[in-house]
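Running this now, will post back.
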Amino acid sequence: MKDKRFMLGIVLTVLWLTLAAYLAFTQNRPSELNAWGDFFAGFFAPLAFLWLVLGYLQQGEELRHSTEALKLQAEELRASVVQQSELVAVSREQMKQELRALEEERERRRDAARPKFVPQLSSTIRSGSEIEFKLKVVNVGNTATKLRMQFAPPLGQLSHHNLALVPNGEIMNLSFKKTEDVTSIATLNYIDADGLPGSATFTLEVIDTTLRIGDIQRLA
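Update: finished.
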């Protein structure tokens, strides 16, 4: 389009110059200087207007091309922003998964460092009206130190039991005589293999001639 418009301007200019030359040699030429000025002004004005119009059209076409280029850049930028947003979302999700995996691994290590106590009824001894319960608490987890076991309320004479070291497989034998029906909460405080404090609880419920031991609950 640009070349066609330029060629049209050249052709019209050549034709106009040819016409001007023909008129200059076939018609009466001006004899005064101001008349020559009017002649050239009248002659070149159409050419100037022609090239002004052609330049205006060319400028409009270039502006349209620039606008289209800007629109394409805007679309590319928008697509880039969308792509970057998706990459950020994927990276954020990967980070969340890595954090969850790290937290799970940390919890597994913490769990492996903790002792695990399992209370069990060992035997029940009856002597007349007197009943004695014997129970054992086995550590099936990691080593515990500075163990303090407390019973609230106390079970007869059994109110606490302390040990400096409770390795894996250690069995703690405990016994008490029934004085009344009671539900006691046993609280175990200890230091685990990582040197961190922990605690757990379980219940001991005495009803008539039976002892019910609740599941142990880890508090920390």
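The first helix runs from residue 2 to 26. More later if anyone needs it.
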